[in-house]
Amino acid sequence: MKRQSGSYTVANPQLFKQQALRWANSQSCAAYLDNNGYPHYPNSSFECLIGAGALSQLRCNAGDAFAQLRAFQQQTKDWLFGYLGYDLKNEVEHLESKLPDGTGFPDMYFFQPEHLVTLHKDGSVTIESANASPNDILAQIQATTLPDHVQQPVAMKPRVSKEQYLQTIQQLREHIAAGDVYEMNYCQEFYSEGVGINPLAVFARLNQLSQAPFSCYLKLEEKYLLCASPERFMRKQGDLVSSMPIKGTIRRGNDDAEDETLKSDLRHNIKEQAENVMIVDLVRNDLTRSCIPGTIQVDELFGIYTFPKVHHMVSTVIGQLRPEVDGIEAIRNAFPMGSMTGAPKVRVMQLTEQYEHSKRGIYSGAAGYFTPNGDFDLNVVIRSLVYNESTQYLSYHVGGAITWDSVPELEYEECLLKAATIERVLKG
Question: Are β-strands 240-244 and 232-237 bridged in parallel, bridged antiparallel, or unpaired?
């Protein structure tokens, strides 16, 4: 796809991002990916990447979805924006999903954008368009006003009671004691039905409070993902792939001294280290299906990364793809990501179906982009709201890794900690 292109400099990058998001939201499909100036993750040169309008779209469910994505990519040879839902696991392994689904999202959705807007880290802007003048697009963005939206408070209901949650953790510990699994990510849903929200206003507030490096606003006609993810699932650059799983979370301190103490506590917590290293081993094993033997390395183990509300323990695994393995196959070979499943992965996903009470859908899947040459960067869909405007169903999931050492009450408190920013946004 040949687009007209223009390069510009903007005086106020933060204002430009807000205007560009609102402009993109006026299109039938939009993707807004924001790095939020986060300094620690290795990223490409852009601070914000936006795709708006749809030249073509791919919607499909598990079965032959990865093959359809490959064909769509080969047909367009263009930028693609969208997501891969958790239930693509049913295509990767012999699994099924019979849990209730309130959101109604397909398992996979990607679109080829009409317009592409890139805000680079140096403050410069590149605008590309298939059917409009880049100068006109810039003028439209800069003419966009930013009215104050007042979102009425929204009350979310838990899909399971606290008592049910605590009981389930005990049952999962029994599975661990029996040797069925070593670690399992167990999640619960909070939801509201018949609710009207302003997705743009809710995301703007969520993004402002979270400032996450893999924030993502997806508008796919009447369906919305409002994502403040701190986690990278997988990135491909040339023949190199990298994954940055998160396992280990602790709250922020009230001052710098307490912050440093909490970071040290997290870094040296034996339980958190055990959770993290198990997932690192799982990611390494997943990458062996795609990478040249001997090239898989742990670039960083137990790194402590700081965010506005929490500290996370993050590790980085890298590898070099075998020549015959393309990006789509590399994703399929590692999907769903280990940080949202557990070990051993297939048995964990079977127990997820048995013990969770609603379909995960897009949650704990991956969202992001592909470049025209087949490179990609995909996050892990966590810390996210999912909204279906046509059915007025609003949902978010939270969860955590369960091991034998898990204390049910503390696991529940960690869920509430992860949900705190979302709840703050929804309560106004």
Answer: antiparallel
